[in-house]
Known about the structure:
The structure holds 2 protein chains of 2 kinds.
Chain A: E1 2-8, H1 19-28, E2 33-40, H2 43-47, E3 57-64, H3 76-93, H4 103-125, H5 136-147, H6 153-156, H7 160-173, E4 192-196, H8 200-212, E5 216-220, H9 224-235, H10 239-259, E6 262-265, H11 268-276, H12 297-302, E7 310-315, H13 323-336, E8 341-346, H14 355-368, E9 379-383, H15 392-396, E10 401-404, H16 413-420, E11 424-428, H17 433-437, E12 442-444, H18 449-460, H19 463-480, H20 483-503, E13 524-525
Parallel strand pairs in A: 1-2, 1-4, 2-3, 4-5, 5-6, 7-8, 7-10, 8-9, 10-11, 11-12
Antiparallel strand pairs in A: 3-13
Chain B: H1 7-14, H2 16-21, H3 25-34, H4 39-44, H5 50-60, H6 78-86, H7 90-104, H8 110-128, H9 136-140, H10 142-158, H11 170-201, H12 205-235, H13 246-264, H14 268-291, H15 302-311, H16 315-336
Amino acid sequence: MRVALLTEGGYPYARGESVAWCDRLLHGLTGHDFDIGALSRGRRQERGPRRPLPPHVRRVRTAPLWGPPPAGRASRAGARRFAEHFAELTAALCPGHQLLGGEGTRRQADRFAHGLHGLADAADAHGGLGGWLRSERALRILEAACRARGAPRALRFARVADLLAVAERLERALRPLSLDWYGPDGLDAADLCHAVGGGPAALAGLLARRRHGTPLLVTERRVRVREHYLAGAAAGAGAPVRALLGAFQVGLAREIYASAALITPGDALARRWQERCGAAPERLRTVYPGLDARPFDAVARARGGAAAPALVWVGRPVPEKDLVGLLHAFHLVRAAEPGARLWIVSAPAHGRGDGAYLARCRALAARLFPAPRGGPGPVAFAEVGDAEVPGLADAYARGGVVVLSSAVEGFPVPLIEAMFSGGATVSTDAGAVAEVVGGTGLVVPPRDPRALAEACLALLRDPERRARLGAAARARALELFTVERDVAAFGAIYRELGGERQAAPRRPARARETIRLTAVGGGERA
Amino acid sequence: MTGSPDPVRALLSDHRALCERAVDPLEIAAGLEASGVTDRAAARFRHRDVFSLADELFARVTPPERAEGADAGRAPRRRRRAARLLSPLLPGVLCAATVAAALARPFAAVVLAVALAALTLAAARLVLSPLGPPGLAGICALPPVGYALFGDAALAELLPGRQSVPQDVATATALTLAFAAAPTAWCRGWFAVRRLRLLATSRGLREFAAGARPLLAAALALVLAGLLAVQGAARLLPVPGTPGAFAATTALGLLLGLAVLLVGHGRTGAAAAGLAAAGAVELLALALAGGAWLPGCAGLAAPVEALVAAHGTAVVPALACGGAAAALLVPTVRTLTRAATPL
């Protein structure tokens, strides 16, 4: 089977999102041929290192989603069609806020889809959009949409600078419309398009599905719409910019979810957002991202016996992990169990920590637990790679109870590693924690040191329960969160989705006025 | 959990900034999740999930009225502003150094003078097109500039029947042009800053265009005033020779000023075309004058000769540069009063 793997800001660029996961997927599914379509997010990424490609990758196409728009002016006829469809697209972004799910929303979504596909067809017929979306005419259309009756309040304050910012971002987001990736030797030749991430990568897959009928599989771990709102708030973008681009992201997500044969969120949080943005539940299938269990096997085997009463925290020291709360909880634990120790191990593998925050935590620990004369204090700070903790797996061997104290959490990788290592876990109910633990560990409310302390004490005092929970956790993790399972799940999905297309004859390409495709730029590798 | 009859009110006050800023309930939902509110927490507020909680929060908050015309752009740092103000004088200073070197030791200093002249050109390029190389426009600017320095003398030499060679004008003209880079660069920067501010404050494209037109007129008037001032000052300098004709230098300065504005806003092609046209007309005049020396072609120089006889040699660059500048005015006005123009 021939699979087109579409990525944005990730594989095969070594620095990016989901790179390790894509790498494992490709190395795990050697039975298929892969075409890779990679959209890069910046000069540094594009010029930076790339992952070595396995031999069953047949072709890599790249295109930039950054930098100035491709040169070239649209023909008069092209510009007229672009304007027509862009007006429809922008009108769908502006008719004001409506609660999702209503009749108005559906009409709005139809209008968005109509505008988007009209723009795609026009781009196909007239050699790409080029820089048209940055033209004065496009700005005038955007302005007219903002000033339309019933447009949301936020848009009425739009300044020219806001319109320019929106036009720039839309031009980049819509670059997949002008790619030369489609056609008989492009995505039409693929039996399946697998988009890693929503947004531009999935947009390319969406067009392939519409033009050639190639089934589309979307793996979205970090939901684009949610990321957009979080990033917009962080970047301090103005209200009109956030409103217009937010509406665009929601519209695009809806259209992608409506066209995808299957969407595979990585956890329930992503799934909820996808459902909220219109994904049909029957087309959602959660596939947990797999982790390599092997490094933790030795630790799991060595567990058992009377371990020292110690708690371990492993991860990236940042304020969201609420280490301060953990230290306060440990203070309560020490009051009841004077021999208890706490290991706080920073793991660079989980991302760069916040040095200032770690220093604050150290100061707090020194204040709460003054070191006894001639001996180490009850709280030990370490980093993976130190003499005491040479490897990541060794961190989990430092104690019988692994604690995760996060106030805010996404998909908790340290928790899964703890489960692989057969540790009994106490974690806070944040993000996907409860879903991952699934009853094989204790879960307490976040930001509640007393509850955390009580749960830790319960496990510290009961070795038998600890062993039982640890074994159950390891069994659960081995069943759900291994790379093998992850890869096998995608192998099955590929067969399920791609098999139909392989058997069925190809849909003939639609007749077009002129077929002239231009590259947006970037290189190609046969 | 909370005893108050309206538990959402407390949440609202905790997240007031988020709720007031939000343009969509989804933005509130994302923000709530990022601060640790989960579906189970939402259940405490009698909501099915975070989304429905966010819907209620969004409905309950009225965004504050935004201040009109706020956020007009940041003030640049003082030290960098000083550097930006003084750096445009660099070509002039370098050119003066070149002249001084050439005057002091006419033979030994030739090499030094050539090097300094090259540095002057490089400095002018950096000052006039600080955001990137001017590309073709930079190359096309060389013929008109070269003609301003040596063209009049060459034309007088070539024209048949006219033996009086005018005095050396190259030194004074070079100094004038090099110092004229300063007001041009200042105007470029001033225009760019004011245009950005106008973009940030204009409430519509029409309003922007209405504001940009007088802004551009003011920038061009400033370029012209700077040229006149520099030329006035150049006449007071104790350098050999007289400066080139007033009209010709002013026309060239304006042409270069328009080209600088166009290059700064992404229209390198138009700028290059204007400069190339001026250069071509000047070279054509030289070629006609030279062609008249060929046997049987004496009539070739007649039009140039007539012009020069009536108005002096400077009429050629004045007409060429003035015409090109007038032609460049059209794309300049069209481009720079448009919001979609880059920068």
